[in-house]
TrEMBL record:
Pfam families: GerE. It comes from the Bacteria. This is DNA-binding response regulator. It comes from Streptomyces corynorhini. Residues 193-205 have a biased composition (Low complexity). The keyword DNA repair does not apply.
């Protein structure tokens, strides 16, 4: 079912918010605006970003938005209770590999869901009806957004909206994860390592040779060159010979923004075209060496 005019407008709001998030240099995730807009667009009484491990029966809430004042400990314990009671969203997304937004009623069936203990738990907390918008997660785990309705179930139009905004949410989540990895790598770079010239010292006394250090991760090397996580993602796609429009589509950014990132890479690496940029990045260990396969 197609989205109505109102939900198309809500989608435009979410799209603008996603672009804003992807362009912000903030080191910490800012989920509050995303969750608020998601709750508004889907008329939800509460929304959370949760991650659970089905086989280990564990789970936690990464971020949430609800009218009630609740603690992290309460939400984490509530998530674990849903896991142990066999919540259909958890079981479905952790065991099937399906990534389609679905309601608990769709997965379990209306009568079995309404008679389940997990439904009773949901009814007594944030809302009797639940909707999942999954994000990529390892096998046996589930990660994504969980939304609640107090009275009525989610409509077909709302499900269409959830499917429409899902790629935006996946991109935001991937952006925050990549930035966290990059920040961890940058934190391991010794102070003054980037841009420092050679230091000449007197020869040291002969000693047993020390073992060669392990090669630095590519993200760490990129940080040394002043390359941001988004620029590093663009560089990786440049190495696959993707044009700017394809890079923009893959990263859910505008072609103009993709061109800006490419120009920034030229300045960072002292190059003037794509081929020399990729070759320079390979020589610095930012990209894998070229394949020798014929």
């Amino acid at each position: 079912m197609a989205m109505g005019t109102a939900l198309w407008r809500d989608y435009a709001y979410m799209l603008g918010l996603a672009v804003s998030v992807l362009e912000r240099p903030d080191p910490e995730p800012h989920w509050s605006l995303v969750l608020s807009e998601l709750a508004r667009g889907l008329h939800a009484s509460a929304v959370s970003l949760s991650e659970v491990h089905h086989t280990k029966r564990t789970g936690r809430v990464v971020a949430w938005k609800c009218a009630d004042e609740v603690s992290q400990e309460y939400l984490d314990s509530l998530t674990v209770r849903h896991v142990r009671l066999g919540n259909p969203l958890v079981e479905h997304y952790a065991t099937t590999g399906d990534r389609t937004p679905r309601s608990a009623t769709q997965i379990r069936g209306e009568r079995p869901w309404l008679r389940s203990e997990s439904h009773s738990l949901a009814r007594g907390t944030f809302g009797a009806h639940m909707l999942g918008i999954p994000l990529p997660a390892p096998v046996g785990a589930a990660r994504g957004f969980v939304l609640h309705h107090v009275r009525d179930d989610f409509t077909e139009e709302e499900l269409a909206y959830a499917r429409r905004v899902q790629p935006l949410l996946v991109s935001i989540d991937a952006h925050y994860r990549a930035r966290a990895q990059w920040c961890e790598a940058a934190a391991r770079v010794p102070a003054g390592a980037a841009g420092s010239g050679p230091v000449r010292t007197a020869p040291a006394p002969a000693a047993a040779p020390a073992p060669a250090p392990a090669p630095a991760p590519r993200a760490e090397r990129a940080a040394e060159q002043g390359i941001t996580p988004r620029q590093f993602a663009v560089l990786t796609l440049l190495a696959k010979a993707l044009p700017a429009t394809a890079i923009a589509h893959r990263l859910h950014i505008s072609p103009r923004t993709a061109h800006k990132h490419i120009e920034s890479l030229y300045r960072r690496l002292g190059t003037c075209d794509r081929l020399s940029t990729v070759m320079r990045a390979q020589s610095l260990g930012l990209l894998p060496p070229p394949s020798m396969d014929c």
